[in-house]
Amino acid sequence: MREVVITLLGIALSYALSGCLQRLYSIYCVAIPSKVPPQHRVRVALIGAAKIASQGLLYPAQRVETVEVVAVAAREPERARKLAERWNIVKYGSYEAILADPEVDAVYIALINGVHYRWASAALKAGKHVLCEKPLTSNAAEARELARLANEHSLVLMEGYHNLHHPIARRMRQLVTNGELGKLTHLEVTSGLPSAGAVLAALGLQRPAGAPPPDKMNPALGGGRFLSQGCYAVSMVRYLLGEPDAPPAAAVRSAVMVEDAPGSRADISTEVHLSWRGGEAGDISHVRDSFSSSASSSHIRDNYSSPSAVSVTLRHTSVTPMGFNVHARFDNGSFYAFNFLFPFVYHYLRVCPNGAPSRIEKHYLEKHDAATGAPSAAMGAVPGAMEPPASAAAESSFALQLRAFASAVVIQRRRNLANGSPNTVQEADGALAAFMPESAVRNMELIDAIYDAAKLGRRG
């Protein structure tokens, strides 16, 4: 009997792995030859040679027919040259040189948080559309200025929350808003990848007071774990639940942040409580972000309480691999989504209606209408977006994001040629508004309010 159980477990594991490996092979090893004439492609330049560049642009561009990567810019010329050679990209050079190139239509910015504003601003002033890694900027003031520039020049400016472009995100939002499970009563979002600094802090081996933080933790450079990874939870909460009635500062009930060293302002752990009135699902009350279990922490304030408020928990740990998951409870059921950040690798959605059997859903491909082959509006598909080919087994959320960005650029181009007004992308395609600068501004306003409440100060 034992041997039978082991054999069955082995078969199940092999089956699960084969599906995952097949998806990854398709995503990373199978390029889709473009049939789009060169003059109709969006010519994109990479700004920055960070590790995210291959995930966010270089691999996805091989599977998005309307995108052509034409240039690479890096702070170190040799690094730019090597990356261009590795990916068969003809042009490489400095940031300034690439932005001045008239044969570049758009840029993908993969730089440290603290310089997003500088180079996104320069790109917009140079007439380039911008896809920028999250967070768009270090604070809301910078985000508002970028939004102004994008509108003034009628350019696309998109913040890179790739995970929100995946079908699993739209399915979660559908469950929150369609009433299938009743009224939302609790939302919990966990996010976390281990980091050496947080582990050391958890062990009591904090960075000495006065010692300079690394760049990724330096508040002046947009550093801090909440801005770097907690922002995924902020964007997910807003995506699922809509906008609150109150301004962000009024929504913050309490904030607890843990510094990696006394007085450093470099946060490694955060717990936030919000009171969120309005939106898609009613009252949102509580966001929690916990990176590590130890630390010198400070409970800031608790100025609002409502027994009817829906609790939203964001829990982030950098000590153990907690993962990126969403758990929602309703008055008539619940759902649990595993791995919302990299759903193209593997994910599942467990839906549990009260009084009915639970079910497991997986959403690797956009659902299409059986008669027309078009993306299903019920799934919240982006109208007019360029869809993956019918033969595709799956797409990465990065490829879906790049396809949506290219679609937005094409829409904006057409409107610009027709003397369209600013904000024409949102007017033409309301579904894209969730990824446009006004939404990024609201993300940053809430993040600013959280840092203010925690007395660690805004970033930048």
Automatic annotation (TrEMBL):
GO MF annotations, alphabetized: D-xylose 1-dehydrogenase (NADP+) activity; nucleotide binding
| Catalysis performed (reactions) | D-xylose + NADP(+) = D-xylono-1,5-lactone + NADPH + H(+)
Q: Which UniProt keywords apply?
A: Oxidoreductase
| Classification via InterPro entries | Gfo/Idh/MocA-like_OxRdtase_N, Gfo/Idh/MocA_domain, GFO_IDH_MocA-like_dom, NAD(P)-bd_dom_sf
Q: Report the PROSITE patterns cross-referenced here.
A: PROKAR_LIPOPROTEIN
Domain GFO/IDH/MocA-like oxidoreductase stretches: 170-281
| EC number(s) from the headed UniProt entry | 1.1.1.179
Residues annotated as domain Gfo/Idh/MocA-like oxidoreductase N-terminal: 42-161
SUPFAM superfamilies, alphabetized:
Glyceraldehyde-3-phosphate dehydrogenase-like, C-terminal domain, NAD(P)-binding Rossmann-fold domains
The domain of life for this entry's organism is Eukaryota
Tell me which family the UniProt entry assigns to this protein. Belongs to the Gfo/Idh/MocA family.
The name this protein goes by in its record: D-xylose 1-dehydrogenase (NADP(+), D-xylono-1,5-lactone-forming)
Give the originating organism. Chrysochromulina tobinii
